[in-house]
Design brief:
Elements lengths: L1 H24 L5 H5 L4 H15 L2 H7 L25 H6 L10 E3 L3 E9 L20 E15 L5 E13 L10 E14 L3 E4 L2 E14 L9 E13 L2 E10 L12 H5 L2 E9 L2 E10 L4 E14 L2 E11 L9 E12 L3
Helix pairs in contact: 1-3
């Protein structure tokens, strides 16, 4: 009995040594290798051998499936920041980015305050109270404008939109203490606009980015002899190339009853349309506007320079105007003015 038991132990010992010998020839590297072994004893011996290898600190690093990264040899990834100079002027102004707020509220035309605006020919005529008396105006006054727009509806891609806008411009005899510093004239201009982004390449780097249609009511809210107002439909196109954007606008005045029309000849002075432009360079904005009536030879030109921010978001602003219609009360009055002050935006 003892002899047969000894033989059995020797057989098991020999089998185990043979199994270990076979695993010594082909060492397992992962648990997957061990799972492929069908024989139970050999599979257990495989797991034991694998566990013994990973108990060694030096083996842990060698068996790691993720290779060590040499930081010195790693490729350097430079962050690329968008150049603000190439951002579309029109896309930014009209919220054409598909991720923009569908009910976007933003500035519209220029928002500014001219601390001093000098005129070479102040228009006293409308304020005459009698044949021999005039409302004497100072040549220097303050002038400011507030303007914003709100998108009421848009498509998912923001390519179409409907906007409501409001602009108010005021001329203030701030330094005229003799007549209690009155507001000489204030103009109110609500409008409704439909915007569209054609996004057409016209060649030579010029892109057609804007097509607008709208209706404007403009008046000075006054009565009797100093009342001024008109209504018009208009269409506007905008193209751009790099930092330069150009706009062309044509309008049609809505006819009024001759008995109630305060300024029947306003188109003779303000014309049928205008050309405007903005060029941005190193934080500066240079703007220009030209309008008039070719048949009468009357019109106006306006130019502006907006500096980089000088006080928080406020920018220095210089405005030059020459011609007819700086305000509604002056639609038929020619003068040249220059003003200096602060602005929030360049109107584009």
């Amino acid at each position: 009995m003892k002899l047969s038991q000894n033989r059995l132990c020797l057989s098991a010992l020999f089998f185990t040594m043979a199994a270990c010998s076979s695993f010594a020839q082909v060492e397992p590297t992962t648990a997957v290798d061990c799972r492929k072994i069908t024989a139970r004893v050999e599979r257990l011996a495989c797991y034991d051998l694998l566990a013994e290898r990973f108990d060694k600190p030096e083996a842990t690093v060698a068996a790691s499936p993720v290779p060590a990264l040499n930081v010195a040899e790693a490729p350097k990834v430079e962050s690329v920041r968008a150049d603000p100079s190439i951002v579309s002027v029109i896309d930014a102004a009209w919220g054409f980015d598909p991720l923009s707020d569908p009910y976007k509220i933003s500035f519209f035309r220029e928002n500014y305050f001219l601390l001093g605006r000098y005129s070479n020919n102040p228009n006293n005529a409308p304020y005459r109270t009698s044949a021999d008396e005039k409302y004497n105006l100072n040549k220097v006054e303050a002038k400011f404008q507030l303007s914003f727009k709100n998108r009421l509806w848009t498509t998912d891609d923001r390519r179409w939109g409907i906007w409501a806008a409001y602009t108010q411009q005021s001329h203030w005899q701030l330094y005229n203490s003799e007549v209690s510093r009155p507001f000489r004239d204030s103009n109110y201009m609500p409008e409704l606009i439909v915007s569209y982004r054609p996004n057409l390449d016209l060649g030579a780097g010029v892109k057609w980015m804007l097509l607008n249609g709208g209706f404007i009511h403009e008046s000075n809210g006054r009565s009797d002899s100093i009342s001024r107002s008109w209504n018009r439909f208009y269409s506007e196109v905008g193209v751009e190339k790099g930092n330069l954007a150009l706009f062309g606008t044509v309008w049609y005045r809505v006819k009024e009853n001759a008995d109630t029309d305060d300024n029947p000849d306003i188109v003779d002075y303000l014309g049928h349309g205008k050309l405007s432009a903005v060029y941005r360079w190193q934080g500066n904005s240079f703007t220009g506007e030209l309008r008039g009536n070719l048949s009468t030879g009357r019109g106006a030109i306006k130019a502006g320079w907006f500096t980089p921010p000088v006080l928080g978001p406020l920018r220095g602003y210089v405005q030059v105007f020459s011609g007819y219609g700086e305000s509604m009360i002056d639609y038929n009055w020619k003068q040249t003015t220059i003003g200096v002050g602060l602005a929030i935006n360049d109107g584009f």
